[in-house]
Structure formats: structure tokens, C-alpha cells
Amino acid sequence: MINLGRLNNLTVVRHVPFGLYLDGGEDGDILLPKRYVPEGCQIGEELQVFVYTDSEDELVATTQRPKAMVGQFAYLKVVSVNQVGAFLDWGLAKDLLVPYPEQRRPMQEGKSYLVYVNIDNEGRVVATSRIDRFLDRWPVKYKKGEAVQLIIAEKTELGIKAIINHAHWGLIHHEDVFGQLRYGSSVQGFVKNVREDGKVDLVTSKPGRDKVDELAEAILTRLQESGGFLPLHDKTPAEDIQQRFGESKKSFKSAIGLLYKQRKIIIEVGGIRLSK
Predict the structure, then answer these.
(1) CATH homologous superfamily of domain 7-62?
(2) Which strands, in side-by-side order, build the sheet including 229-230?
(3) Confidence band (pLDDT; 50, 70, 90) for 210?
(4) Which of 59, 190, 226, 228 could potentially form a cystine with 274 if both were Cys, beta carbons 3.0 to 4.6 Å apart?
(5) Strand pairing partners for 77?
(6) Which of 63, 52, 57, 72 has its CA nearest to residue 20?
(7) 147-203 has which CATH code?
């Protein structure tokens, strides 16, 4: 059975002037239009394709990859609006529909929105900006320090909400926000803590000793690039540390302390210097 709105490995069964047909099993043969056919493709060859529905709601395949598949969230731009709904650019020839009932707020052409891709009751691949009902649907099994993929969402009084691995809500508290986190952007994050109620606290840099070790290496590299000296010390404003390394002043001081103990740097009045 075809996984609609996802990648499928399908076998070529016949060539036609306008493309070729792939074996869709019980769903029947599926057209791969000529413009997407790989050069030299032969009958019996297996292709990995994305399957969705065309303007006539017929199954069609493409070797292109959309910006999001069924079961995923993405920040997509509205390219047109009509009486049916809004249409998003998701990287394919046919734009992705967001029906009016699935719009959290009326969408406007030219603006981008955070949406979830799913299959509607009519069997079409569509999107919705009413995303809450697609999150936190099963128990949280993350571990402290685990690397996760984040999509940055809205700001709250406590911090910035982010979608974890297309599955759960998490929160980056204000004190753990370093650098600019743009709405809809995709970034790597780490689990800081999983609370008893299942809520997940996040950070965008490695917690603990791994973070300090990584920052220490970055400082050494910057020292080498700067002729062995950096005008950074205990009195340097936190904003300058953040701008140079994307980390807090507290983490910077820990990394400097580690390098000093390892005798890799000398701490001077005006900054830090590589040891000879």
C-alpha cells in the first residue's frame, strides 16, 4: 500500500511518451511525469519517489523532495489565496492547500506560517496551522542531554516554545536563550530536563561538560586565528561574549578556567593569550 505524502520505493513497470508508470500495488500504477524521470531509467528498476495527489486527486509521483511530508511541521510561505483556501510553496509543482477551516488565523499571500502536513478526510495531502492537536500525543521518552531537532515557535512569558522532533512541545527558558531564534527556523537543541508532568525544558547548546569542552576548542581556534591573543576577560560584557561565541558569559568563564588549568592559555589583565 502506498504511503501517501511520504517517500516510497516503487518499481518501474512501463514507459509511456509522457513519463513512466510505477507499481503502486493495490493502489494501481502511478505516473511519474517525464520531467522527473531519471536519465537511463529502465523497466524493473526501483525508484524512491514522493507520492501525492494531482489537481484531479489522482496519485502522482515525483523525484523531487518537498519541504515537509505528512507527519511533519514546516514554516511555509503563502503564494496565493482563493475561495478554497491558501496555497503554500512546499517545493513541488503543485502548491500545498490549507483549507479555510484549517487556518488558525486567515492567511495572507506573501506571509509565512508554521503548519502541519497531514491527510484530510477526502484523502488529500493538505496542511493546517491548527497544530496543537498534532503534538504531545504519546508519552515523552526523551533523556537529559539528548540531541533533538527543534522548530522555533511562539514566545511566551517563560521563554520560547519549540516543536521537538515533529512530535512534542518543549520550552527554551529565557535564561537559556542565546542568540537570535527566528520563528519557524529549524535548529538543533538538547534536552535540559524532563519534568514529572512530561513537559520538556530545552537548550540550544550542549549542556554540562560537553558544552564547556566544545566552547574551549572554539576559543583556542579563535586565539590561533587572532595571532594568539583575544581582548576578552572577566569584565567583558556578556553581549560581546554572546556575539563572538554564541554562549553565555558563565559558560565562557568555565571554558577559560578549563584552558587555564590545562596550561593552554595565560590570563592577562587585558585578555587571554595562548601559552608558548
Answers:
(1) Nucleic acid-binding proteins (2.40.50.140)
(2) 229-230, 271-274, 265-268
(3) low
(4) 228
(5) 89, 112
(6) 63
(7) 2.40.50.140
